[in-house]
Amino acid sequence: MTDTTTDGTSETRSAGTGTVTVSINGADVTIDEGATLLDACNAAGVSTPTLCYAENLTPVNACRVCVVEVEKSRTLVPSCSRAAEDGMVVQTDSSRVRHSRKMVLEFLDSGVDLSQTSTLGVGEDAISLADWAAEYDVDSSRYGPAAEKIDEEIKIQDNLYIRDYDKCVLCYKCVEACGDDAQHTFAIAVSGRGFGARISTEFDVSLPDSACVYCGNCVAVCPTNALQFKTEFDLRQADNWRETEQTVTRTVCSYCGVGCNLELHVQDDTIVKVTSPNDHSVTSGHLCIKGRFGWQYVQPTITRQNPAPQPEA
Questions:
Q1: What is the mean pLDDT of residues 210-218?
Q2: Exposed, middle or buried: residue 169 (CB in 10 Å: 0-12, 13-18, 19+)?
Q3: Which of 53, 120, 142, 170 is 20 to 30 A away from residue 278, measured at CA?
Q4: pTM, to two decimals
Q5: Other Cβ atoms closer than 10 A to 44
Q6: Positive or negative CA dihedral for 95, 38, 217, 263?
Q7: In a domain, 304, yes or no
Q8: Is residue 289 included in any domain, yes or no?
């Protein structure tokens, strides 16, 4: 498999049958040929912050918070996509790496709202944004009140999900999920330049008028809640979103025979959103509109809870 990048580094990842050994912060780690430096870091037990990386998407090297220093490399390289090569010597905590990660996090925090970005990383290796900010002594306030910040109205065009561009870091994950990596709908892309760049539908038409098929895969991969389930948004607006109290139950979608696994997020005995495991062999975390949003029929309604009295025969 070949990963396309823009920094000139070698990103060709073959399946490979052998292994390679790399040095991560002075410790040798042996991994499968074709694995990335991020895989090597994980194998070495070294936590690495990521925003634009997802296990079920092709790396696009957009956020740059996962960069590491490779001996004899002129520039820092993105660990999420850089293929590991035998004999590589990698530093993940050098002064160059720490300075780069600090600056990236500060720039992001000074321009967008990261208040709902809970973690940086994937799965069990994810660490809270607050902890990473403390690790690198992040202080976006030093840019002053004049720092330009995105300030746009939240787009609510249907009852399925909302778009809050104040939180968008242009990680491209939604574009990838909508395109070649999952849905192949290509309903969204990056529009505009510089600070005016946004994720947009074709000609900026509303979602109902666009090519969007409402699979919700873009929502599932968004790391900052810029794309958010309408049910979650409404609960947050009411100050009633209690994620730590929610239960997650794994089940199988009932709509067809494909066998997609669903994760039902339940709060107060009510389903508030549905996701799918990234490691599931059928979905790889992706669903269609029925699996993602078609769960309302299982909710207890007032009619079911309090059935109207039936006339006597």
A1: 96
A2: buried
A3: 170
A4: 0.85
A5: 18
A6: negative
A7: no
A8: yes
**Cα–Cα dist 69/49, whole Å:** 14
* Tens-digit pLDDT profile for residues 236-288: 999 999 999 999 999 999 999 999 999 999 999 999 999 999 989 999 999 99
pLDDT value at residue 120: 85
The 8-class DSSP code of residue 83 comes to B
If one counts the domains in the chain, the total is 2
Helix, strand, coil % over all residues of the chain, rounded to 5: 25, 20, 55
Look up tokens 């079911």; give the residue: 304
Q: List pLDDT tens digits, range 164-193.
A: 999 999 999 999 999 999 999 999 999 999
Which structural domain range is residue 166 located in? 161-298
Which tens digit of pLDDT belongs to each residue from 144-154?
Answer: 888 888 999 99
Tell me how far apart the alpha carbons of residues 159 and 229 are, in angstroms, rounded to a whole number: 9
Domain boundary at 81, 113, 142, which? 142
Residue type, 98: R
- Work out the percent of the chain whose per-residue pLDDT is above 70: 89
Q: Rounded to a whole number, what is the largest CA-CA distance in the chain? A: 89
- Residue 297 is predicted with a pLDDT of 86
Query: What is the distance of C-alpha 87 from the center of its chain?
Result: 31
Size of the chain in residues = 313
Tell me if 1 is assigned to some domain.
Answer: no
With H, G, I as helix, E, B as strand and everything else as coil, classify residue 107.
helix
CB atoms within 10 A of CB 220: 24
Residue 145 DSSP code? T
Cα–Cα distance, 47 to 70 (Å, whole number): 17
CA–centroid distance for 182 within its chain: 14
Q: Look at residue 311 in the predicted model and tell me its pLDDT.
A: 55
